[in-house]
Amino acid sequence: TGGKDRRSGLILTIPLCLEQTSMDELSVTLDYLLSIPSEKCKARGFTVIVDGRKSQWNVVKTVVLMLQNVVPAEVSLVCVVKPDEFWDKKVTHFCFWKEKDRLGFEVILVSANKLTRYIEPCQLTEDFGGTLTYDHMDWLNKRLVFEKFTKESTSLLDELALINNGSDKGTQQERERSIDLNFLPSVDPETVLQTGHELLSELQQRRFNGSDGGVSWSPMDDELLAQPQVMKLLDSLREQYTRYQEVCRQRSKRTQLEEIQQKVMQVVNWLEGPGSEQLRTQWGIGDSIRASQALQQKHEEIESQHSEWFAVYVELNQQIAALLNAGDEEDLVELKALQQQLSDVCYRQASQLEFRQNLLQAALEFHSVAQDLSQQLDGLLGMLCVDVAPADGASIQQTLKLLEEKLKSVDLGLQGLREKGQSLLDQISNQASWAYGKDVTIENKENVDHIQGVMEDMQLRKQRCEDMVDVRRLKMLQMVQLFKCEEDAAQAVEWLSELLDALLKTHIRLGDDAQETKVLLEKHRKFVDVAQSTYDYGRQLLQATVVLCQSLRCTSRSSGDTLPRLNRVWKQFTVTSEERVHRLETAVAFHSSAEKILQECPEQPEAFNEMEQFDEIEAVGKSLLDRLTVPVVYPDGSEQYFGSPSDMASAAEHIREKMKLVSLKKQQLRQPEATAPES
C-alpha cells in the first residue's frame, strides 16, 4: 500500500478471505510483490500484516509459516490481525512464541483496533483504522500497464538491438540476411513509446499532486522505482528506435537502389538485346515508294516498343536524380555509374532509331524522286513516239518549246535524283557505326547497288530520250523550214500575182513622145526583172520544199498546188509583159517616125520624095490602135485587158492626134507638088 513501519520498512498486507486460499498462487504473488522494491528497501526489512479476520487459524498459520520460506531474511515483524472472538489466545500465542527462533521473525496476534500500537495510523489503510489512501484496483491497473510496457519495451529493445547490431557488423550479405530475418519487430515501436510516455506522465502526476487534506501524498516506493525505470526504458527505446529508423531508411534506400538497379538492367538488357536485334534485322531501304513506306511502318512499330522503355528510362533518371540530390556519399558513385550506363545505352539506341528513321525517309524521298522522274521520262518518250503532224509552223514551234521544257524538267529531275541518291549513299556509308560489330557490308552493297542501278537506269533512259529529242528537234526544225518555204513560196506567188495585176491595171500609158516611151520601156524592163527575181525565189523555195519533203519522207500539202500556180501566174505575166513590150516598142517606132517627119523642114523637099514613109507611119499607128483594142490572151485561153476602156481610149486618142498631125504634114507636102505642073 506504500505504508511504512517505524523502521521505514515497507508494509506488506496479506488479506485472507473465506474461500479456499491457494498457497502456490499466494507464494507466486509474494515472490512478485517482493521483487518490486529496490535492494535498498529490502535491506530495511518488511512488516507483514496478515489479515485473518475472515479466515481460519490453520490458513493463517500456514501463511505465516510460508513467509519463512519466501522472505525469511526480509521479514522483521508479522502482525496477524485476528477476529475478536474465535481464536484461543493462549494456544495461538504460545505456538508462535514457540516457533519464534525457528521462524526468524516475530509474530504477534493483534486486533485491528490495536494495530496502531505497532504501526502509525497514517501508514495504515482505512481497513485497519488508518488514514492512508490506497486504491488497490488503481494500483493494479497501473501495475499491469507498467508490466506490459516493461515486457513489451524489453522485448522490443532486444529485437531492435538484434536488428541494429546485425546491420552494423558482418559482410553486406550477412547484414542483409540479418535484416531480412528480423526486419519487422513483433510490436509497433510507436505504440510502445506512446504507452511509456502516458505511463510516465501518470506517475509524475501522482508524485506531485497533493491529497484531499492538503498534505503531500507520499509516493509508493515501487512507483519511485518504476518512474526511473520507465524513463530509462524510454531513453533506450528512443535510441534503439532512432537507430532502427536509420536502419529502415538505409534498407529502404538499399531496396530502392536495388529496384532501380534491377530496372536499369531490365532497360539496358532489353535495349541491348531484343531492341538492338530488331534494328539489326532492319537494314533494307526498299526498292519502291510502297516498300519504303512499309519499312517505315515497321520502324514505327519498333519505335513504339522502344518508347515504352524510354518512358521507364525517364522515370528512372528522375529517381536517380532525386537520390543524387539526397547527397549520400556512399551511393553517389554507384548511382552515377548506373545513370551513366543507362543514359549511354538509351542515347545510343535513340540515335540508332533516329538514324534508321532518317535513312528510311531519305530512301522514301529518293524513290519518290525516281518515280516522278520515271513518269516524266515516260511522258517524254510517249510524246516522242507520236508522229508529228502539225498544222503549221506555229504549232510546231509550240510543240518544240514543250519538248524543250520537258527535257529541261527531266534534267532537273535527274539532278535532284543524283543529289538524293548521293545523300542516301552517304548515310548508308555511316550505317556501320551502329551495327554493334555486325558486318553490314553485304546488306549495304545491295542497297548501294540498287541506288546506283536506279540512277544509272534513269541516266540511260534520259540519254535515249535526249537522242530522240535531238532527232525530233531536227525533224521539227526541218518541218518549220518546210512550212516557211511553203509560206514564202505562196507569198512569192502572191507577190507575182500582185505584179501581174499592177502590170495590167497601172502600166497603161504609152508615152506622149519617143523619149517618154523609151523611159517607160526601160522601167518596164526593170519591172520585169523584179518579177523574174520573185519567180526565181519562188522556184528555189519550192525546190527546197521538195528536198525537205524527201528528207522528212513526207508529201507536202501545198507544194503540189503552189508550183502550178507559180508557173501559171508567171506565164500570164510573161505573156502580158511581152504584150506590153511589143506595144511600147511599136509606140517608140511610131513616135520616132512621126516626130522625124514632123520635124523635117519644108526647104528640103527631097526628103519627102518617097511617100512610103507616111504610109508606113499610118500603118504603124493603125496597128498600134488595133493592138490597144485587143486583149491579152493567156495560154489557158483566158483574156485580160490593160487598164479600163477609158484608159485605153485616152491612149488611143493621143495616137490618133499624132496621126492627124502626120496626115496634115503629108497634105502640106503634096500641095507644092500639085501647083508645080500648072505653072
From TrEMBL:
The keyword ATP-binding does not apply. Residues 1-136 form the CRAL-TRIO domain. Gene3D superfamilies: 1.20.58.60. It holds the Pfam family Spectrin_SESTD1. Keywords: Repeat. The keyword Repeat applies. InterPro entries: CRAL-TRIO_dom (IPR001251), Spectrin_SESTD1 (IPR056804). GO terms for molecular function: phosphatidylinositol-3,4-bisphosphate binding; phosphatidylinositol-3,5-bisphosphate binding; phosphatidylinositol-3-phosphate binding; phosphatidylinositol-4,5-bisphosphate binding; phosphatidylinositol-4-phosphate binding; phosphatidylinositol-5-phosphate binding. PROSITE patterns: CRAL_TRIO. It comes from the Eukaryota. Belongs to the SOLO family. PANTHER family: SEC14 DOMAIN AND SPECTRIN REPEAT-CONTAINING PROTEIN 1. This is SESD1 protein. It comes from Onychorhynchus coronatus. The gene is Sestd1.
